[in-house]
Write a structure and sequence with these properties.
Strand order of the largest sheet: 14-13-12-11-7-10-9-8-15
Strand content: 15-25%
Mean pLDDT: 94
Order of helices and strands: EHEHEEHEHEHEHEHEEEEEEHHE
Oligomer: single chain
Amino acid sequence: MKQTGTVLGLATAGFPSIILPRRRNKLGVALVGLGGYATGRLAPGLQLTEHCELRGIVTGTPSKIPRWQQEYDIPDRNVYNYENLPDIANNDDIDILYIVTPPAIHARDAIRAAEAGKHVWCEKPMAMNEAECLAIIDAANKNGVQLTIGYRMQHEPNTQTIIQYGEQQAYGAITGVQTAAGYNGAHPNPENWRRIGRMGGGALYDMGVYPINAARYSTGMEPVAVSGRQWSERTDMYSDVDEFTEFELEFPDGIIVKGETSFGKSMNYLNVECTDGWYRLEPMQSYSGVQGETSDGTQLPPNPNHQQARQMNNDALAIKENRNPIVPGEDGLADIRIVQAIMESSQKGGDRIEL
């Protein structure tokens, strides 16, 4: 992560092969997958952005098309399905494909997008495993397009303040971190991808990447070892995936991060302990209301602006200015490596796994 000074200085390189049309100021975005997040957050957010706008859709559900076309004035030429997605290469209206499909097909769709010469925004978790993440990064580099992962929190002002505190050691050296993200809910539909392991379901993939990413951006470092434990209590619903995951990340200088995630317990915080004080966010990953405080009484009040709009605006501006994004593909890769190590540790009874 460029802004945190971590080893992810590997961030995806520039893309001189892409020349942006001078005829328009906004970049055209097509949403790939029209589920709840695209419908409820991304499409509305794109109505608020200065540097990009919604111009196309990709869906495998034809019945969704009329409503989207009517609501967002999307012409027939900008409507695609997963079979003809490669044809988008010939469409100058579309500059960016935002991958919002289930994790198991992120790699398929992100690689197709890159091979079509379009910039790629990919939702978290980036993919199912390290190999898929590397394949996406390779496709973006080979085709001269920018790749960024949809970690909206790194664009959120209070989160950026927390990152700066760590970089500047504003409260001394970090000595420990506790972080968690989860909700007390249910997924009654057996076809919901969050219940299906091969689709990228489970609390760790869905929600656990929030505390994992928070551990990394708050410390500005990469862990050297992990341990973890996964289990389910509602086995009728979550027999194929984890309902709960607890993990411990070991960072250099003896810093320990304790994290947890769940589909059966509400939790939403980031606490950072330092030699000269502390700071925290609670909630730390909600769509709105992210707020915090510090040991010296500094308040971090919520920012009222639309998080996804801010994220997409920043990412579009990075493309227009030919500079690396805040969250490059390598950032998503680092989290998936940790996810896989936590799963391995759990399978081995909580053994310490070196990274």
